[in-house]
Every structure is written in structure tokens, then in C-alpha cells.
Design goal:
Length: 301
């Protein structure tokens, strides 16, 4: 791959994605991008009585109340869709370890570039809502390669934030519900490290749109290595703590707390009816996207 020395940073990233990721995906998925992007339907088509096995998310409660029997909305798949990226760029997303060699922010940007490139290459439109300490930026949905470059450029320009009050994802999710008018495919990319209260916002967003939650994680957030004394710093608040990772009891308690958080998050996604995927900083991006596609295909079937 020959990248001109004068190419901009977004252009270099997109050319790398095209060469190292998109070409491999073309071979592995063999053009089956519907498994990635098309769900149960995006445009309202009709109403009918509820039947056993129907997705309860599509129950129309207003009609159900009037008719005194459950009714569900039916949708048909539109060949052209609009996708939105709800992006969490709060301080904890700038975490990364030497073992992974990449920050969560880097993985998030690569994922956005890959998914946006796949979508726009097939005639679809993409937009984004970016959260830092608050909702800071909305990028209207458009199509084409230039739109992908615009998204990548704006993300690269977002500075890393100093320590701040704890992240609250509710404004990001509520912003998506207010500003995205037409039923769309919505990717929420975050580590989901947040104060409580965003769970209801996620559920409400999923009632209107097809939501896919992509958790960007680092392996050291689940298990600490046995490397002796460490200074740990909370990326959100800046609070520092010396710990001795030689202490097996401390490592066990750390792991148990992390597992409890994972379990609680899984329950939240399940209750909201939201499809959730995890992408690790130490994972090959192509494998991540193929796994997302495979699980979406199985979910739809």
C-alpha cells in the first residue's frame, strides 16, 4: 500500500482501513453485509395482531389499548438505510495498556471508520453524535467517502479530556432519541463506564431505532497482572491509588468486581432488548467485525 506523504491523517487512516480491513472483510463475508446492517426492518409497513413469538419491542401500546388486544408494528427493510454513531469520548475511553498497544479511543475510531466505510460504500448515509463531558458535536447524516473522512477528521481533532466528574451516558442516548428523526440503525460505541441512570434512556432509544451497543474494552479492566506495586489512576476522576498486585487476594477481588460489573451490564442490555457486542483493544479488528456480523446473523435467524 503506497500512501502519499502529503496525505492527511484521516486519509491515511482510511487507506489503511481499506487495505488492511475492508479487503479482508470482502473475502470473509463475501459481500454479506446485510448481516451487519439490516435488522428486522427499518420502515413502518403495517399493523397486525400479536402472534406467539413476535418481538414484544414492536407492540404498539396505543393501538393495543384501543383494541383491547395486542397489536404489533410491522416494518419492511429499506435498501438504503441511515446509520448513526453515538460516540463516547469521555476520559475513560483514553485508557490503554502496553499489553494491548492501543487505547480504547484508537479502537473506537477504527471501528467507526470501518463501519462507516462499509455503509457508505453501499449507498447508505452515516451521521454521528459525540459525547465528551456533554454532547459536544452532531454531524448530520450524509453519504460518500468524503463523509467518512469528515467523521474521522472530527474524531481525531477531539482532544483527550482531563479528569472530570464521572461520565453520564444518559444525555448522549437522550440526544440520539431527540435528534434522530427517521427510524435508523444506531451504533452506540462506549466502554459504558458511567454513573447509573442511562439504562432507561437506552431502552427508550431502542423503542424507536434498531440499536447495537459496542463495548470497547481493555483486557486489564478485567484482570490485573502480577507485576508488583502499581499506581492506578481513575481516568474519570483522576483519583490515584497504590496497590500491590503481588497480593493474590487483591487481584481476586478486582476480578470479582469486574465480573459483577460485566454481569450487571449484560442484564441491562438484555432488559432493554439491545444487541451488545464487545471489542477488545488486543483483538484484531477484522475478527471483531466478523464476530459482530456472525452474531447479528444468528440473532436475526
Amino acid at each position: 500500500m503506497n500512501v502519499p506523504a502529503t496525505a492527511s491523517a484521516p486519509e491515511r487512516i482510511l487507506q489503511r482501513i481499506d487495505w488492511q480491513v475492508i479487503r479482508r472483510l470482502d473475502g470473509l463475508l463475501q459481500g454479506d453485509y446485510r448481516s451487519l446492517f439490516y435488522g428486522r426492518g427499518l420502515d413502518f409497513a403495517d399493523l397486525r395482531e400479536y402472534q406467539h413469538g413476535d418481538d414484544v419491542r414492536y407492540i404498539d401500546w396505543n393501538v393495543t389499548a384501543r383494541m383491547d388486544t395486542p397489536y404489533v408494528r410491522q416494518y419492511h427493510e429499506d435498501r438504503e438505510i441511515t446509520a448513526w454513531f453515538l460516540l463516547d469520548l469521555s476520559p475513560s475511553v483514553d485508557f490503554g495498556t502496553a499489553a494491548a498497544a492501543r487505547q480504547k479511543r484508537t479502537v473506537l475510531i477504527d471501528l467507526v471508520a470501518t463501519l462507516a466505510r462499509l455503509l457508505t460504500r453501499h449507498g447508505n448515509r452515516v451521521g454521528a453524535i459525540v459525547y465528551g463531558r456533554r454532547v459536544e458535536l452532531t454531524i448530520p447524516a450524509r453519504g460518500g467517502r468524503d463523509q467518512v473522512l469528515r467523521l474521522v477528521d472530527l474524531l481525531l481533532q477531539r482532544p483527550q479530556l482531563p479528569e472530570a466528574p464521572l461520565t453520564d451516558l444518559a444525555p448522549l442516548l437522550d440526544g440520539g432519541r431527540r435528534w434522530i428523526r427517521r427510524r435508523s440503525l444506531v451504533f452506540v460505541l462506549s466502554d459504558f463506564i458511567s454513573v447509573p441512570g442511562w439504562e432507561r434512556s437506552l431502552s427508550l432509544l431502542n423503542r424507536r431505532h434498531e440499536v447495537v451497543a459496542i463495548r470497547v474494552v481493555d483486557p486489564r479492566e478485567l484482570d490485573l497482572p502480577d507485576v508488583g506495586p502499581l499506581l492506578l489512576q481513575d481516568a474519570e476522576t483522576g483519583e490515584q491509588l497504590y496497590v500491590d498486585t503481588h497480593d493474590a487476594g487483591f487481584r481476586r477481588r478486582f476480578h470479582e468486581a469486574a465480573v459483577a460489573r460485566e454481569t450487571a451490564l449484560a442484564a441491562t442490555f438484555r432488559q432493554a432488548g439491545v444487541e451488545a457486542q464487545a471489542v477488545s483493544t488486543d483483538e484484531d479488528l477484522v475478527r471483531s467485525v466478523v464476530r459482530i456480523a456472525t452474531r447479528r446473523r444468528r440473532r436475526r435467524n
